[in-house]
Amino acid sequence: MLARYGVAAYEREVARVRLAILKRSEGAMDRIDRLLEAAKRDYRDVLMWAEYPEEGRALWTLSSHLSPEQRDELEHVRGRDRAQYLAWLAKTRDQRSEE
To answer: Could you give the angle at the alpha carbon of 67 between the alpha carbons of 46 and 48, nearest 5°?
Structure first.
């Protein structure tokens, strides 16, 4: 199924997007199909959902006029998002090495 993404010239960052689809789908085939369709429309959505879930939900981060405190909080949010993604990736690698 994942091979459906990356066929068209406009479908960018193929490996990263496919990994994001796997993360967000949690292995559910119907979710993979929906995420593939979303990636074909705009791959950045799938990347945001997988790699930056907390920031994606925090609409205040979209403001171009963040206070210094908000900028600090945004850095913390991004740090937590990065940590959760790396933890998921490590867990996935561990599971694959056990197989």
So the answer is: 5
